[in-house]
Amino acid sequence: MVDLELIKQISQSSPTKIILLVMDGLGGLPHPATGKTELETASTPNLDKLAGEGVCGLSDPVGAGITPGSGPGHLALFGYDPVNFSIGRGVFETIGIDFDLQPGDVAARGNFSTMDKAGLITDRRAGRISTEKNTELCRLLDGMTIEGVSVFVRPVKEHRFITVFRGDGLAADVTDSDPEQSGVSPKTIAALKPEAVKMADIANRFVARAKTILAGRVPANMVIMRGFSKRPHLPGMNEIYKLKPAAIADYPMYRGLARLVGMQILETGATIKDEFKTLTRNYNDFDFFFLHVKETDAAGEDGDFDRKVKIIEEVDKALPELTARHPDVIVVTGDHSTPALLKGHSWHPVPLLLNSRWCRPDRVTKFSESACITGGLGRFPATQIMPLAMANALKLAKFGA
What we know:
This protein is an alpha/beta fold. It has helices spanning 4-10, 38-41, 45-53, 70-77, 89-96, 131-141, 197-214, 237-241, 252-260, 272-282, 295-301, 305-323, 369-372, 385-392, and strands at residues 18-23, 55-60, 106-115, 121-123, 145-146, 149-157, 160-166, 222-229, 245-248, 264-265, 288-293, 329-333, 350-356, 378-381. The chain has two domains: 4-86 and 233-392, Alkaline Phosphatase, subunit A (3-Layer(aba) Sandwich), CATH 3.40.720; 92-229, no CATH class. The chain is globular. The two termini are 20 Å apart.
């Protein structure tokens, strides 16, 4: 496997441009009634044209059989080994909303959720409450002090929020309380290392206080926590790839992740059409664009097959806004699979197309899971997508004499 040090040695600046279009949770499973996945069901003439002119394959974000979270999935897309650069989701969300995360702080991502009288989680997302309701509830929880540790609670979007613990002697090596399924009780947060016992105790006390404060506020009468982490140091994409990279993402987590690897965050509207327009406005100022579409993943997690199909079709209709710029390399893929049939992330490899005037086209004529299985790229680690994109943009020098 090619590592970042080697890429750093042979990468070079050039005027060519790369666009990485990520439809979050793109991969799916066949619908029992049709035998087709969401991507195979959707009408995608523009994506199919790109696939027909390019080369396709399937990628594994972490490894065969491993179900990745969104953080590891995206880190792999940017060329960072997600096993070596393991970062909790709390940091991504917190940086994504521009919270001033300080050294020593521990950040966690939270969901407002619904708990029944038996203490079982019946809805991990509290019916996807509005961001306005979320903001109101965060005000109720914000400002606690537990054993001298200050607790900050801020809204992210819909049911999601972040919690930052600030105080002495805090370690982030604790487990989650989020059971990641309904019909069971929240988990007790436990220390993974002796030095994290204090953090686990404070986090559990925060959850207990939140439960008391939220009692009776159905559907958001409980909190579940995951992704406890501290801010890491990552080598930037400019340092590794000699790129001037920009990110177009509406959802805070992905802005935070992009900022951690050195991308400039571009202000954009909330719709898919808005995001593509943002790319057009800023096209001359950067040579790498990460364009993120969240809605495919949300539809998959909700088990809404038809909605996921419609979102893929919406992306396809917006694609001419991108192709009209004639970028040197276009990569279209996802960070992981989120089949509507499973209502969650899965281990299935992710379809990928790479379109470039310098690629070696295969015989794939439709962008889909079943077609990509036969593609010229085969099945390979997602960490190799960036070296392929760089090579096809003529941004990698020869290795060796």
